[in-house]
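Q: what sequence does this backbone want?
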């Protein structure tokens, strides 16, 4: 099990968005719903990696126990990022809804 490099948020490839498809972008910027969906997928993947590392450690197949610690941290950070994105989206929505037209 290899540890993947952390990819910057501002690169759409970090979210698995196809930059050649204009339907997922508006003026070269990824659509928020695609970024949020990919953040959810990232949480699922990091959680699966954490569970796999936990299983490998418990069965004695993991040579380096630091991999489990790193997988735990990545999963926790992915969840925190997704929650912050959700909070900002809700905050923005509430701000727009409270505006008078």
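A:
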């Amino acid at each position: 099990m290899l540890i993947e490099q952390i990819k910057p948020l501002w690169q759409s490839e970090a979210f698995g968005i196809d930059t050649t498809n204009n339907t997922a972008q508006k003026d070269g910027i990824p659509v928020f719903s695609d970024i949020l969906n990919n953040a959810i997928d990232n949480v699922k993947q990091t959680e699966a990696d954490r569970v796999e590392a936990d299983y490998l450690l418990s069965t004695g197949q993991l040579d380096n126990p630091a991999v489990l610690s790193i997988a735990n941290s990545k999963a926790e950070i992915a969840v925190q990022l997704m929650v912050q994105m959700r909070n900002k989206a809700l905050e923005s929505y509430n701000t727009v809804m409270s505006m008078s037209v």
